[in-house]
Amino acid sequence: MGSNILKKKNIILPVIFIIYFALLVYLARYVKMDSDYANLVLEANEVIHGNIFLNGWNLTGLSFVTTDLLYFIFGAIFFGISTRTYYVAAGLMTAVVVLVGWLLVKDEIDDKFACAVFLCLTGLPCYAAMTALRAHTGAVIWAFLAILMIARWKRERITKLLVLCTAFIALGAMGDPLTIIIAVMPMIVVAFFDFIRGREYWSEAGGFIGPAVAGTVLGTVLDRIYFIVGDANKNQALGNQFFITYENWAVSRQRYIEKLMCISDIDFLNRKLVSTETLFYAIGTVFLLLGLLVGIVGIYKFVRDKNSDIITVLLALAVLVDYVVLRLTSLEFSSNDWSRYMVFVIIAVPVIIARNMEAIADFCKADYKIMRIVFTVLAFLVLGFRIVNWKARPMETTEQEKLAEVLMDEGLESGYGFFWDASSITVISKGKVRVRAIRDYEPYIWFCKDEWYDDYVNFVITSEANGHGITPEGALSLFGDPVREIEVDGNIIMIYDKDLSELITGLE
């Protein structure tokens, strides 16, 4: 009988995951692809066609080769250069990070209500969260798996778990140092406090510090080897970050709170004081504050050497370390979409709540059987609110989609444009139209391949508002009069009867 139940579970759970993954792929269609993700699609397509080391590419400050790029490769295997590859990658990353969060909840806890609360709070991310989860989630997944392994090692003392923890950290650190912030730094903090408590804790401290250091070193070495073997160029964008000045601290705090509210779907600022919508924002706010408070209490108990849940402690430390890094450095100011550096919080906080529901009930001197029902009902209300919001969201047509359609209709195949138009149009058109990014009429060496600028080019997409100096006046000055012009949403496609690549300079 038990064997039959186990077999059914082994079938049902993967089926549920596939259905859930398909749902997230569908929702990813609402989060339109920009050129950053389009370039990951192009990179993934190169990898599956043999360019494993991305030779000839100019990458960003991170390679993503063992993190986000893996999910784009999975999509590219089925769809190649296509927006579908992006939808699959975004949906799969989100599905996997929720799955790993669920494993963190279930570690040593057999409570269906706790799992239900977690899945209701995380299973259907809001639009802002889906937007942020497109990037760096691969690193979050490795970090969460490392935390799961070290928590099990603390309980079971099996060496294999330390090896797995080291491997997960190495895989994350090789592709994206966010893993170091979320997993390594919290583990080092735990090791530090274990070390200063006395000799009886030194063995445990070694168990935490060993994988943290070894995994980071191994990941860094593998990253260096990857770029030594291949000839891809990784710029110094990450190395150019800096500590912000004291005057910007207040601005940083405000920006962090605003982004946290946004990705947590509790952005009640400038909303009606009394409304149904406000009620749901209030419920979400209570869950967020409760999770953060429980995390702080968990850290306090650990520091005081009291009984504490190590997964709660590590996740709470991860949120704290990430907050400090974002508050004190220029990372928060480096992009309008910097919430991707903190979006793991919307998984970590529900894990903390779900793992500590019984402790919360004890603290409130409430009957846990009643309390867990209350938690579950409130979590279901949050889920219902998000379902309603997603159903009301329209499917928008982007400027890049309109441009791609016009360019294909006109039979144009190769041209120049603004970075945020270029690769997006290339992927939207499934490679039928190749648009390469330029800035001030020079190659824009960011997330691109050198050989792109050797192609015959006979059009340029100009605009007064693109911010990269690709204006109609500039095109007239450099290329002369076009044979034809087409206007699309404020953009002017200037078409020539000659090769423009010969007039573009700046690439060695």
Summary tags:
508 residues, six-stranded mixed sheet, three-stranded mixed sheet, 9 strands, alpha/beta
Break the fold down into its secondary structure elements and pairings:
Layout: H1 2-28, H2 35-48, E1 57-59, H3 68-79, H4 83-106, H5 112-122, H6 127-132, H7 137-156, H8 159-175, H9 178-197, H10 202-229, E2 233-234, H11 249-263, H12 276-303, H13 310-328, H14 345-355, H15 357-363, H16 368-392, H17 399-409, E3 414-417, H18 419-428, E4 434-439, E5 442-443, E6 448-449, E7 459-462, H19 472-479, E8 484-488, E9 491-495
Descriptive overview:
- There is one protein chain.
- The chain is of the alpha/beta class and 508 residues long.
- 62% of the residues lie in helices and 6% in strands.
- The chain is built from 19 helices and 9 strands.
- The strands form 2 sheets. It has a 6-stranded mixed beta sheet, with helices on one face. The chain has a 3-stranded mixed beta sheet with strand order 2-1-6, with no helix packed on it.
- Helix 2 packs across helix 18 (419-428) and helix 17 packs across helix 18.
- The radius of gyration is 25 Å and the shape is globular.
